[in-house]
């Protein structure tokens, strides 16, 4: 039986690495295979989560590069399969900090020449092997693209991409099977690096809004004070804290403390995600408004949220959904602060919007706030005044009304993301 200490032992413990590598390459959705994997680490899902956490951190530094590349790809596949199929194990993985470990691993791998290895593999005889070719696709699509949501990864990616600029431009690599995936990755990486530079030049701004939903003050995060109980809710004044305590935070405080403890990303990582989300939100603002009108026309009075799908390659996909769609999901699939944030949205009187950012392996909530509810009220008015047989997505009148609303609002139409 292979226990945790064998999984994370020194590089010359070849048997331990070979066994884990073999187990992770099995189809984990087959119950007998998953049972074998559990048995190999002592029979406990907690032991497996801990072993995987340590294994992925050490993979790129403790193994020869060929084995490390294949091991990392198999591990990503395994995590994706088990995350979707096994809700209990998903909760255990998150509690073990698997997300932070993957980010840390990728940052270390980039420093060790991960991009160079991918290009070398793509043009080597290994790439003719279908398994190797599919693993390369997993590494690019399943790991590199997802990693571009991390501040630390993008910092290192800026250096790593410049180091492989010549190799990635070679004709041999451009004719390889994985080059199309690489091109998608490189385009997104360049975009995130550009956004990172802009964010740095602006002083890495991070906004908060007063959590007294009757207030509406929005400012830099250092202008607010946190609740001493949950360390999460923020207020611009003592008076606003008292009002919010009476309006609902008295009940929410302990839940919000759990939210803060469950977050595996430090504030700078969340602020960076918030920053590139703001750019994407601005590009899609008109579409979000039109899709919101479409839903409001069919379901007046129903709460709505926008979902930004960052888990797939290519152009960012954004869709507007009813809150009911997500209420129907198992609780493990929803962010832990789901109920609390919806309570705040109701109390905001139209100054707050709910956004779900879909990453692998989970959703993250980012709210957008405005100092006024006029934009929200304008969208509801447009939806209410439409003839029943009008399709808002095909109506030039609706498009014109949205443009006029945005123009009339001026700076008030801008909603700031609150990380």
UniProtKB/TrEMBL annotation:
<dbReference type="InterPro" id="IPR044508">
    <property type="entry name" value="At5g50450/At1g67340-like"/>
</dbReference>
<dbReference type="InterPro" id="IPR002893">
    <property type="entry name" value="Znf_MYND"/>
</dbReference>
<keyword id="KW-0863">Zinc-finger</keyword>
<dbReference type="Pfam" id="PF01753">
    <property type="entry name" value="zf-MYND"/>
</dbReference>
<keyword id="KW-0479">Metal-binding</keyword>
<protein>
    <submittedName>
        <fullName>MYND-type domain-containing protein</fullName>
    </submittedName>
</protein>
<dbReference type="GO" id="GO:0008270">
    <property type="term" value="F:zinc ion binding"/>
</dbReference>
<keyword id="KW-0862">Zinc</keyword>
<feature type="domain" description="MYND-type">
    <location>
        <begin position="212"/>
        <end position="253"/>
    </location>
</feature>
């Amino acid at each position: 039986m292979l226990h945790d200490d064998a999984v994370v032992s020194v590089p010359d413990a070849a048997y331990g690495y070979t066994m884990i590598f073999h187990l992770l390459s099995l189809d984990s959705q087959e119950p007998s295979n998953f049972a074998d994997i559990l048995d190999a680490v002592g029979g406990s899902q907690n032991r497996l989560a801990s072993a995987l956490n340590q294994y992925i951190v050490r993979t790129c530094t403790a193994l020869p590069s060929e084995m490390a590349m294949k091991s990392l790809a198999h591990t990503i596949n395994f995590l994706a399969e088990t995350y979707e199929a096994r809700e209990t194990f998903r909760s255990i993985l998150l509690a073990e900090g698997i997300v932070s470990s993957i980010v840390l691993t990728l940052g270390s791998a980039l420093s060790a020449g991960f991009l160079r290895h991918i290009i070398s593999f793509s043009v080597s005889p290994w790439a003719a092997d279908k398994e190797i070719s599919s693993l390369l696709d997993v590494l690019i699509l399943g790991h590199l693209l997802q990693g571009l949501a991390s501040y630390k990864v993008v910092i290192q990616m800026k250096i790593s991409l410049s180091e492989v600029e010549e190799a990635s431009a070679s004709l041999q690599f451009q004719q390889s099977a994985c080059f199309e995936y690489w091109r998608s990755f490189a385009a997104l990486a360049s975009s995130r690096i550009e956004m990172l530079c802009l964010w740095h030049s602006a002083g890495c701004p991070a906004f908060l809004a007063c959590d007294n939903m009757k207030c509406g003050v929005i400012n830099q995060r250092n202008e607010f004070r946190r609740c001493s109980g949950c360390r999460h809710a923020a207020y611009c004044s003592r008076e606003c804290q008292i009002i919010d305590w009476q309006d609902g935070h008295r009940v929410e405080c302990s839940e919000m403390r759990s939210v803060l403890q469950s977050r595996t990303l430090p504030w700078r990582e969340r602020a960076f995600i918030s920053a590139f989300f703001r750019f994407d939100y601005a590009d899609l603002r008109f579409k979000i408004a039109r899709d919101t009108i479409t839903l409001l026309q069919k379901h007046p009075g129903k709460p709505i949220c926008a979902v930004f799908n960052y888990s797939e390659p290519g152009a960012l996909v954004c869709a507007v959904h009813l809150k009911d769609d997500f209420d129907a999901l198992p609780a493990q699939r929803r962010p832990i602060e789901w109920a609390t944030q919806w309570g705040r949205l109701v109390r905001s009187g139209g100054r707050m919007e709910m956004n779900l950012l879909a990453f692998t392996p989970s959703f993250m909530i980012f709210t957008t706030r405005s100092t006024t509810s006029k934009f929200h009220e304008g969208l509801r008015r447009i939806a209410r005044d439409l003839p029943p047989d009008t399709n808002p997505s095909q109506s030039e009148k609706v498009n014109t009304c949205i443009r006029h609303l945005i123009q009339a609002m001026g700076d008030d139409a801008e909603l700031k993301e609150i990380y």
